[in-house]
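Summary for the steering committee. One of the milestones for this cycle was to obtain a three-dimensional model of the protein with S-adenosyl-L-homocysteine bound, which we needed before selecting residues for the alanine scan. The sequence and ligand used are listed below.
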Amino acid sequence: MHNDDPPNWEEQRKMMVQHQLRGRGISNQRILEAMGTVPREKFVPINYRHATYHDGALSIGYGQTISQPYMVAFMLQLLDPQPGDRVLEVGAGSGYQAALLGQLCQEVYAIEIIDTLAERARQTVQELGYDNVHIIVGDGSLGHPAAEPYDGIIVAAATPDIAPPWQEQLTEGGRLVAPVGSQGAQRCLVAAKKHGELGITESIGCIFVPLVGEHGW
Ligand code: SAH
């Protein structure tokens, strides 16, 4: 291989799934398939594109990041999305996770507070043909009342708490996954709604960019 050969994205994506995901215990077959299919390189700004399948987060501008592939897979596995689900993502960023959800679920609403990022994400998911992914500009700490209720809510920014609107906008039996804690460090929480109340399970520690807005910082 010569250094000026174009990158073989498909091969790099396969290796990422094998080593970073399977190798570390991600076992949900549908999630592994989606991550082996969605072209992450399309969601990464051109100046970092060479590092698309590295084992880390990457800058997408405006102080924001596209999360590490392992973290994305891990959170999706906690959410356990089903083919018939309607899902809300808070913090659409590049639109990468929204596209994965588009492949895994029936309908996806992904809300992003920075309008230029939302515009770019919308363009990328459209170009890739994810017609069931809707990118919305707004404060996702308020959820997205226009399309509630959701079978799943996944929060991709660090939050001080589970914002009350998220609980309200979940279906009975719905699940929420969020990094909850301080601005410096969080823990992934899974909350399942039963009889209107959230039953919470704690998972691994993580570090996300902070949620801003009404119920954020
Ligand atoms: N899931 C994204 C990465 C998310 S980074 C991806 O796949 O690329 C977190 C994102 O949350 C940032 O883009 C940030 O602008 C956004 N964000 C922070 N607070 C928000 C809020 N209140 N509502 C919506 N988006 C928010």
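Key point for the committee: Residues 9-206 form a domain with the Rossmann fold fold (CATH 3.40.50.150).
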